[in-house]
Amino acid sequence: MAGSSQRESWGEWVDRHSGTFFIAPAVTLILIFAIFPTIYSMFFAMSRVRFTGDGLKFRFVGFRNFSKQFFGTDQVHFLGRTEPVSILAMIIFAVIVVSVLVWLYRSRKIATWVGMLGRTVSASMAIFLAWVLCASLLSGNSIGTLYTTLFYVLVGCGIQFVIGTGLAFICSQPIHGKNFFRVIFFIPLMVTPLGVGYAMKMIADITKGPFEPLLRLFGIENWVWSADAWSARLVMVVGDSWQWIPFIFICMLAALENVPQDHVEAAQVDGASSMQIFREITWPQVVPVAVTVLLIRAVEAFKIVDLPNIMTGGGPGTATESMTLHSLFVWRANDMGTSAAIGYLLLIVTVIVCASFFNYVVLGRLRRTKA
Amino acid sequence: MADGSPQVSVKFDEVQKSFGSVKVLEKFDLLVEPGEFLVLLGASGSGKTTALRILSGLETPSAGQVYIGDRNVTDILPKYRDISMVFQSYALYPHKTVAENIGFPLKVRKIEKALVDSATLDAAKQVQLDTLLDRYPRELSGGQMQRVALARAIIRRPSVFLMDEPLSNLDAKLRGYMRAELKHMQETLGITTIYVTHDQIEAMTLADRVAVLEKGVLQQLATPAEIYNNPVNLFVAQFIGSPPMNVVHGSLEGNHFLTNGAKIETAVSGRVENGILGVRSEDCAIAPPSDKTLNGKIYTTELIGDHTLVTVDWGTDQIVVKASKAFDGKQGDNIGVILPSDVLFVFDEVTGYRIR
Amino acid sequence: MSDASFKFEKSGRSLMERLFEPPAIGKMSLVAKIVAYSLLAIWSVFVLFPIYWVIITSFKDAAAVNQGPFYIPFFDFQPNLDAWRAQFNIDRFCDLTSILRQVYLLVHNSFVFVVSPVISLNPMELQICKIYLAFTNSVVISVVSTTLCVAVGSMAAYALARVQYKPKFGNILVFVALLVLVIVATTYAGVPWWASSTVALAMFFFLVRSVGRYFKMRLGNNDILFWIISQRILPPIVVVIPVYVMFQAVGLLDTHLALIILYAVANLPIVVWLMHDFFANVPIELEESAQLDGATRFGIFWGIVLPLTRPGLAATTLLILVLNWNEYLFAVFIATVKVQTMPIMVAAKNAGEKGVFWWEMSAIIVVMIIPVIIMSILLTKFISKGVLQGAMKG
Q1: Among A101, C15, C34, C174, which has the highest number of CB atoms less than 10 A from its own CB?
Q2: B24 pLDDT exceeds 80?
Q3: How far apart are CA B158 and CA C385, in angstroms?
């Protein structure tokens, strides 16, 4: 049929614009329920918000909700106690500042000006965190929710990575029942965190938990782990690790099994021992996955809230409060502005730390292997 | 050998291998002479790669023993067998440079760095790679990668070389060049080499002796010439030679082969009800149809360049004859094929054995 | 020319090497086996013990719990169903006939909800056994939310794999600027939200048409993909307070729909990340030949691509189902009274109870975690088949 140039049917018009229609729902949902609230939250953070008869009333207060956390009434809750500062802490702080500045100086030559901007931001965050660490923990003072969260992230992810990779290495050897272990080891990842928390709380109980005879043996049956800040935090890390080591395990096992069999066999014929094969052949090929897995885990770890809530309620005092939990409690106290501010601080810390890790470690590796 | 150390033999003694209920290698006996270039030839699934892997130590046999020299190495790890292997995929370590790849076998033995470096340079020079020592495998061409694998294999001067279809990933032209290089290198170094391939041209050109395998059973072990001119059964006869040997079905009575009403005189005599007559394309000739020739119609002609392949219909079989490049017959023409008795092979169709 | 042939003798090995060296390829030395299996056994005990403990605690009575730890049922203590009976007998609606009636009520109310834009029916009052209510809420919200999330996410992932998008960076900045203006107007100047939104939307289209022509810089598919996946970095706590206010304004607070939408958005990045990989691996020739035959894009998506990626789709669905089931933060902000999911029920009981009634809590927790344990076993079967391999590399 020559020149059937009728107007295209409705179906054809939809198909021609299918690109838009396919992606529109996702983009719309994210815009309305993620992007918009994030921006809106900034307004909460910069206001004093109150519920009145006909809705919400916002009163602009600038950065006061934020500065409260650093200099004002909430400083101890958020940052921890920062005085007195010990000499040792000052020395360590000086060392850290110098190394960060040296790194920044050396980067001048390899980064664009946008890159330098990013590096300055990372450097500032690093120096700030170092100062808080030195002033609070290293001086023998207590730490606040900021560092509690960082403790969960850094110490937790570190332990989880080492144990998870170790288990994956064992399971990549020729052992029987590999699939059985895979199934069993995967379960904790999927168990509801609240359930995990409660189970751990019951188990860790001194008088009624299963370890009671053991504790009695060691004569510490009167020690209550939940009354000491650091033991409580450690128990939190144990619970978190129970849940998240499977994630590292599964990903690293997949990576280890993806190393081509040929390379391992060639190394075996060449005369390498198992340790040498792992160090020289397997591990370098697995490192890209390892850093990615670590990054994903770290991003999730910043958000921790279920476990501290149900195991200790944030206690003793505020020792085990993560920043999310801190924000939740503040919201329950009807101070929505401060709650939003703390949420934003968490966002900033998460983004800068994770983006720095991603940029300098993950991409750095990629750049090195491509060069 | 070139460096003065003695050449070693390799022996498979009744080696068997099964994976579950699948028998991959059956009662495999093979003695490789010191310094020999032996090719294991067969189709995929014939067991040739399994035999090589058992020799390398990457697999353990279900039964039987393996000897390298006088040592029984059946239960010994690959690294103690003093062997090197070139894999089909080269298995170059992607995150190490060419120099580090080549030097790896020495590095894991904790040899001092200076010695490792000089040995690496030597090996690289032997395969003409000394200018590429700082590259990474992903920056190399197929032929270069293959030479790195070779250098890595020779750096240790092992007693035995094992090669698993090393040329199959190269294009045809490069393959021909590398064949010559390999042969020259083996001759120079004098190391006993076991080479696995499915390509009969590689077998013919490279081997001192060829071991033909099919379905885990050794069919024939002989020199290339012997295998070509004196195949022991139908499988070997058809596997070697390009184009493949012609087969004509019929029966053998006395010293005449009866097929489709024709009676062809053979050099052997016997009585075989289901027989196969085999003849190579270059041994028969095209002639005008007569009563001294086998007469049929031309199915097709193919000009190769220096000769023409003429396919002639004969009953249910076809006979491919090498004719001169000037042959001008066409599809459907009547044509005759001359079959001299001294070039004919007769096989028993049921057992595959050659009638002598 | 190098002289020595570098032999490798057995005698030159260190003690560690001798202990751990395998006797043959594919086997492990005895010492290595002992070490490996012991470590795996220790970890297995560590993994299974808490679950075991919770399960047996749910079968203990008050005495068995309070008088010190008992480990083995029938041996140390007598198991009984106190805890389970307590859960299911709190109110009078927990026997079999009531539960059946509740199923009928649920179906009826779902039907009412679905046809509500068109016909107006009255939902019937639900009289429900508390744990059953929480369980049903969890099931309904998880399933519907997962379906929505996977549907929307797969479509977006497929589009990102096949269609080239080139949005102008300038337009995006304009959009964000207008968004900020809307918020300023609504919160500080008291303009009603529907008015400011409509005006802003109109301004957006106008500006894109007029000024948009001058914007040159464009973003690509990878940027969009990165943007979607990076939403995962957003801590939910940042989002939840404005969302609370938003839902309150439209009256959707404390409803199933609110949680369904929120969970879908929260897990969208994961679905897009995983499915994008699967779709990119489908050979494009299959789709091209279907296009030549005249199929529409949706037809290709539904009829060719999705069936090919069924294992990946199934694995992703299971994963999201589990994540939705376990979710706590959004639920605790948005839906705590009328619509309780299982985690909320657990948290509420934990916070408000009259003492440590561990056996009752254990029973609830067992009900909460059994479904996800089953789903995780299914998911492992998928993972061990290498379904999610590609995503690992991504």
Answers
A1: C174
A2: yes
A3: 40
Q: Are residues B263 and B166 in the same domain?
A: no
CATH code, domain carrying A316: 1.10.3720.10
Q: Please report whether residue A55 resides in a domain.
A: no
Residue B274, φ and ψ in degrees, nearest 5: -110, 100
pLDDT in tens, C219-266: 888 888 888 888 888 888 888 888 888 888 777 777 788 889 999 999
Cα C255 from Cα C258, distance rounded (Å): 6
Sequence letter at residue B84: S
* B232 band by pLDDT with thresholds 50, 70 and 90: very high
Residue with tokens 């939840």: C240
Q: Which of A314, A318, A316, A302 is nearest to A81 (CA)?
A: A318
Pick from A362, A188, A357, A366: nearest CA to A290 = A362
What is d(CA B15, CA B74) in angstroms, rounded to the nearest whole number?
Answer: 10
Alpha helices in chain B (DSSP H): 48-56, 98-107, 113-126, 142-154, 172-189, 200-206, 224-229, 234-239
Q: Which domain holds residue B322?
A: 246-348
Task: Report CB contact under 8 Å: A271, B79.
Answer: yes
> Sign of torsion, CA B292 B294 B299 B305?
negative
Phi-psi label, residue B190: left if phi above 0, alpha if psi -120 to 50, beta otherwise: left
Residue B102's domain is classified under what CATH number?
Answer: 3.40.50.300
Pairwise CB contact (< 8 Å): A265 & B83: no
pTM of the model: 0.83
Q: Are residues B187 and B332 in the same domain?
A: no
- Indicate whether B220 and B323 sit together in one domain: no
The answer to whether the Cβ–Cβ distance between B157 and C21 falls below 8 Å is: no
Is B127 inside a domain boundary? yes
Q: Which domain holds residue A296?
A: 64-80+142-370
> Do B228 and B272 belong together in one domain?
no
Q: Above pLDDT 70, what percent of chain C?
A: 84
User: CB contact, 8 Å: B122 with chain C?
Assistant: yes
Reduced to 3 states (helix: H, G, I; strand: E, B; else coil), residue A345 is helix
- In this structure, what token pair is assigned to residue A158? 């570190």
- Give the burial string for C92-107 (b: 16+ CB within 10 Å, else e): ebbeeebeeebeebbe
A369 interfacial to chain B (CB closer than 8 Å): yes
Residues B104 and B151 reside in one and the same domain: yes
Segments of chain B assigned E as strands: 10-19, 22-32, 37-41, 63-68, 71-72, 83-86, 160-164, 192-197, 209-214, 217-222, 246-259, 262-279, 285-287, 294-303, 308-314, 317-323, 334-338, 345-348
How does strand B192-197 pair with strand B22-32? unpaired
Q: Give the residue from B50, B56, B104 with the most A CB atoms within 10 Å of its CB, the best one to mutate.
A: B104
Count: domains in chain A? 1
| Separation between Cα atoms, residue A209 and residue A200, nearest integer Å | 9
B225 and B263 fall within a common domain: no
Please state, in angstroms and rounded to a whole number, the distance separating the CA atoms of residues C169 and C382: 40
Out of C4, C8, C23, the one facing B79 most closely (by C-beta) is: C8
The answer, yes or no, to whether residue B2 has pLDDT greater than 80, is no
Which CATH number characterizes residue B265's domain?
Answer: 2.40.50.140
pLDDT digits (tens, 9 = 90+) for B268-298: 888 888 888 899 999 888 888 888 788 888 9
Give, in degrees to the nearest 5, the angle at Cα B41 between B39 and B43.
155
Q: Are residues B154 and B198 in the same domain?
A: yes
C312, two tokens: 């990946």
* Together in a domain, B204 and B331: no
Give CA–CA dist C275/C273, Å, rounded: 6
Please answer yes or no on whether C28 and A18 come within 8 Å at the CB atom.
Answer: no
A268 φ/ψ angles, rounded to the nearest 5 degrees: -65, -45
Ordered domains of chain C (ranges, CATH): 26-80 (no CATH), 83-353+361-393 (1.10.3720.10)
